[in-house]
Amino acid sequence: MDKDRLDQVFDMQRGLQKRIGTPESVVSGASLKQAQFKHADAEFEVLTWHKEFTLSLMMEAAELMDWMPWKHWSKQLGNKEFVEPYGATHVSEVHLEIVDCLHFLVNLSLLWGLTPQRMFEIYQEKNAINAARQESGKY
What we know:
Layout: H1 5-20, H2 24-27, H3 30-35, H4 40-65, H5 88-111, H6 116-136
Helix pairs in contact: 1-5, 4-5
């Protein structure tokens, strides 16, 4: 049976992290399992990599924001050189930044033992909650 695309993304990201030199315990979720048994080194590893991946995600999200004209005093797209707003180059750069964000979301998922299947299940649950909130008009 073919893997679905989210499974493939996780496998590719795991491979990239191994090539980069990220510890196997991080990309396999083993450090989390060890930390649950209160191993100080594992707890430190989870904290360190959680911080690393979260800060990286935040920076990538800031780079994504920089492709939008959020500065009311400027006609440029953030700090970027002039490109045609909503043209092919602009859209391509936004897509790249979204994928950069995805890299670090997947890294966090690997660290915390969140599988593609479980991510999909949680997404479905949260999507239903959000839809119900909107339908109720109380959110």
